[in-house]
Design goal:
The chain is 77% helix and 2% strand. The chain is an all-alpha fold. The longest helix has 69 residues, at 2-70.
Length: 197
Amino acid sequence: MRFIAISILLPILIFVVYMDVIYEPQLKTVSAELDLTAIIAAHEQEQEELRLAREKKAREPYVRKITAKYGVDEFLADEIVKVAKKKANKHITYKDIIAIIGIESSFRPNICSQLRPDPACGLMQIRGGIWRISAWELHDVERNIGHGTRILTHYYQILGRKDGAIQAYNIGITAYLGGQSNDVYLEKYQREVAFYR
């Protein structure tokens, strides 16, 4: 009977010792790697949260000015400034975009003009029929600002001047190239940009 017990227990004992000697260091290594991975992930998340907080803080002066002047909800104003910064480029700055939005829609994303049959809609008052843009895109903050910025950039590339691009945005590129201008609109734009300095 003792022999049977020893013959059964001995392999189990050898297996336990083997597992302890061979696999435990590997398990500790895997555990340490998991801990290090978790620490790195937590650090990266913390850095991302800090970056987002810095960006939000940088937007705050513009958000305050927009909410004070136009009575817009702070969350919407922040979203508009964030998207304007994202869509800006070397020719059209986020301040240009914000100024156009102020003039065109007073920061109201769902407003449409009285032009018929193709009204200008959204923050940057884009005519969907002319630009082949769907109505839902015109009322979407990010898409409207994206389309408006592309139009302004396109005009800038054609004309090579920001003041020309701004006027063409208001009266149309064909009218502008035909000799028309809108100095009143340009002055409004300049005052609006100065407001955000």
